[in-house]
Amino acid sequence: MCQARVKFEEQEVVTIRDLAFENTRTGRTGDMLPDKDEPNAMGGGGQGGLGVADHPSVSLFREYLRLKTVHPEPDYDAALKFLDRMAQELELPMKKVEVCPGRVVAIITWAGTNPALQSVLLNSHTDVVPVFQESWKYDAFAAVKDPKGNIYGRGTQDMKSVTIQYIEAIRRLKAEGRRFARTIHLTFVPDEEVGGHKGMETFVKHPEFQALNIGFALDEGLANPGESFTVFYGERCPWWITVRCPGSPGHGSRFVENTAAEKVRRIINSFLDFREQEKHRLNTSECLTLGDVTTVNMTMVKGGVAYNVIPAEMDVSFDMRIPPTVNLQEFEEKIQQWCKGAGEGITYQFAQKHTNQDRTSTADSNPWWKAFSMTCKAMNVSLQTEIFPAATDSRFIRAVGLPAIGFSPINHTPILLHDHNEFLNEQVFLCGIQVYQELVPALASVPALPGEV
Ligand SMILES: CSCC[C@H](NC(C)=O)C(=O)O
Ligand SMILES: [Zn+2]
Ligand SMILES: [Zn+2]
């Protein structure tokens, strides 16, 4: 049933007949013809001309991609208007919670037949990262589809695809007349891409979040270039640190002792030597993935006023990502040693210091994981379980004690989140909807757990 095994070379073309069948099955009508007002809306991509109409789910995906919810000024109003329409089409209630001024979380709820049971959360963020338009093949917000069916746009992988896949899976399940014991909540959150402080981090502390009575959450993952899907059961902790090095100022023509730059050099050496060790560890062990080692990258250097003035202070910043297996207290002690060894008066401060290292169990004793993995097995979908190398909103969900899995049903696709020419093939996208059509019923039908009514 699931076409997740489809390979690009053997790509099937969705024909009008397939679409007609699909529309009958889903109960969706009236959107068979390509929308001539949309740029490049013709199936088969190209720049207009004769083509095959987009599958309605693809058409919706491309419409959502065109909303400019891009930092630094995301058009969140456009996203909320779109989601309002989705809720109306699905005939489901939508609640809006303003977690911070101008930062609204939208919640669409499909009540279960036993609402006392814990719910299933399908989370996605509405914002996307900026683009370097000059490096893109197409306008990053035009959702152009090329002749291979590859849809280009910021958010195609991260994570507007997942948002629409959730919505389309729910639409189809509702059209089939299905009901499930557990309530399903779809949350659409702002600001994930800028750290989640005015989004999920605040929302998880809000009474409206507690009221959702969540038992298990799905959130974003990463594409997999091979046949498998990658699922993430934990994340590395992001630590963003700035090390401040004071030093003796003076004339740029002299050998001044104890300069800020000499201290910065020792700091950089300590951090980057450690970086080399970890890179070597990753490259020499077949069983390690990026999520299992600590990455360190020097991302900013600040200081100085003129060529011939030795500055009294210089700052250097690093982006570190620490696996959940690392003892964080010992790791910070190591940083303190590096600072102490680099000279007098060096201080540091964190711009980001996540310390929760909770992981979601991938043992069969976890009924949520069992439902998830058994369903994938039944679909012949193979899974690779990993630690997420970067940070998502799942870290806030896990930090309040809830199990969460990061999963984007994207295989046979290079990992292009935050990259130029981010794309997703329409067939892979459509397969992902079918994956959720199986996963959502399985999760929403997990039998009552000990302690549940
Ligand atoms: C630490 S908050 C920023 C979140 C961002 N997430 C991704 C997926 O790129 C990151 O890991 O840099
Ligand atoms: Zn994302
Ligand atoms: Zn992202």
Automatic annotation (TrEMBL):
GO BP, one annotated term: amino acid metabolic process
Domain Peptidase M20 dimerisation, first and last residues per copy: 235-341
Catalytic residue list: D127, E192 (proton acceptor)
Principal location: cytoplasm
UniProt GO molecular function: aminoacylase activity; metal ion binding
Keyword Zinc tagged: yes
Main EC class the enzyme belongs to: hydrolase
Protein location: Cytoplasm
Pfam families to which the protein is assigned, alphabetical: M20_dimer, Peptidase_M20
Binding site residues for Zn(2+) 1: H125, D158, E220
InterPro entries membership: Aminoacylase-1_M20A, ArgE/DapE_CS, Bact_exopeptidase_dim_dom, N-acyl_aa_amidohydrolase, Peptidase_M20, Peptidase_M20_dimer
Cofactor note (record): Binds 2 Zn(2+) ions per subunit.
Keywords: Cytoplasm, Hydrolase, Metal-binding, Zinc
EC number, as in UniProt: 3.5.1.14
Residues that hold Zn(2+) 2 according to the record: D158, E193, H418
Region of interest: Disordered: 26-46
Gene3D superfamilies to which the protein is assigned, alphabetical: 1.10.150.900, 3.30.70.360, Zn peptidases
Cofactor: Zn(2+)
Gene Ontology annotations for the cellular component aspect, listed alphabetically: cytoplasm
Family: Belongs to the peptidase M20A family.
Protein name: N-acyl-aliphatic-L-amino acid amidohydrolase
